[in-house]
Amino acid sequence: VARRAAKQGVKKGTKADRTTCSKTSEQEASQEAKVVFSVARSAAPTTLLAVVTGDASIVSEPPKRSYTGEALIPVFEEGVFIAPTDYETEVLDEDGSSEPFMLEVLPADLSMMPWERDGRTWHTQTRISRNGLPCQWDGRILAEVVDRIEATDFFSPTDWNQKTTVEIRSEKKSEGWFFHAITGEEWLLKLKFRVAKNFFSKDLVTELGLSSLNDTPEIPLYGNEPRTRIQTAGVWQEIELRLCSYGEFNRPEIWSFLDRAIEGFRKMCERQRKNPDDLSPWKQLGEKWHRNPRGFPIGHKCVWDHETLDRLIGLIQSLCPEGRWVWTNKVTVPIYLGEREEPWAYIHTKRPEALYLVLVGSKGVFPRGRLATLPGIPELDDTKPNFDRIRFTFMETSDLNKREFRLFLEEHLAEALRNK
Q: What whole-number distance in Å separates Cα of residue 149 and Cα of residue 229?
């Protein structure tokens, strides 16, 4: 309130054009502001506001003590009053000329983060960990690994421009990444490599000879797990090394592993280029892919109960044990009867909005009136000249448990078997 009073005091003493302020008007503004401050010694905030604005109607409640105002009074009395600068006007130079007020613009390189300006220096020399302390692992490890990979001319340029991650991808970036370095930890540099599934055996842990943290006294961390880790990720095998000193890295075993990993990734990419579908997860995993609750379109969450799929598969297999299931498609599972070329049924397993079952049968056998009482919101498509399709939509397992659906499924299957 006092600061607002000071503004009001200045405005009363400034000229209409508000470009300059004479010495007399400044003295008058200062004197009026001091009068307003003196009122604050005994006035409540609403009373002070009424004095400043000239509107007595503001005072509608009994005065209340202002502890903040009491604390500010000696500050105002001892301080020097300076009229605030009006930034809406032009700025006058010493010679009286005027220029528009301009903000200073920083050079482009100063407005970037250090890992964006010079990522290699940040990750291999500066090396600040997530906790703000300098990294204790040797930066030469990362520099020499990247140099070895880049010397093969099979990869895209190294991405140094993330704060705690360094990435190297295939020359064709859609084939994925080969190398990740996690640089944000204080004591351990994590190096991750991706190769074809089962390319390395579990004996690699012994071959590389990286002792556990408990057996490495120079690292103040604890754990009995090996610092070489191998895991399967779909059609890939991922190997992770956790290193600290340059001595444990600069050994023939490590360099040999790195060269083999590069070759393993190269062969995987060449195989993928020749037969792209062979490396698809639905080709590699088959039934597991379709039963997995993942694999739906990016950004779309599955809203139906995934247990419904297991229940539907079990129901059809119990009714038709001789059925031939094809699991190698991406979103659908066709079911064939014997050696027929056309499927009897389809299951759409990767639609996020619902689980769909489509039955294909002879034309005109099951009219719409027959389907009206069935669960699963059946829809009849009779637009094809030689067959009809009936699509069921399921969200929960409760519809599959209804007796009328099982009876209809048996009836439709029996009709399909009769019309071989």
A: 20
> Measuring CA to CA, how many Å separate 120 from each of 31, 213, 316, 343, 356?
62, 28, 58, 57, 51
What distance in Å separates the CA atoms of residue 281 and residue 333, rounded to the nearest whole number?
14
- pLDDT, one tens digit per residue, over 106-154 is 555 566 899 999 999 999 999 999 999 999 999 999 999 999 999 998 9
* Residue 201 · residue 188 · CB < 8 Å: no
CA dist., res. 116 & res. 119, Å (int): 6
Averaged pLDDT for residues 297-305: 89
Instruction: Confirm if 364 and 324 have CB atoms less than 8 A apart.
Output: no
CA distances from 133 to 184, 185, 325 (A): 10, 9, 57
pTM score of the predicted model: 0.52
Residue type, 368: R
* CA R_g for the chain: 38
Q: Quick one: 254 exposed, middle or buried, by C-beta within 10 A (0-12, 13-18, 19+)?
A: buried
Q: Is the pLDDT of residue 214 over 90?
A: yes
Complete DSSP assignment for 178-210: EEEEE---SS-EEEEEEEETTSS-TTHHHHHT-
Reduced to 3 states, what is the DSSP secondary structure of residue 302? coil
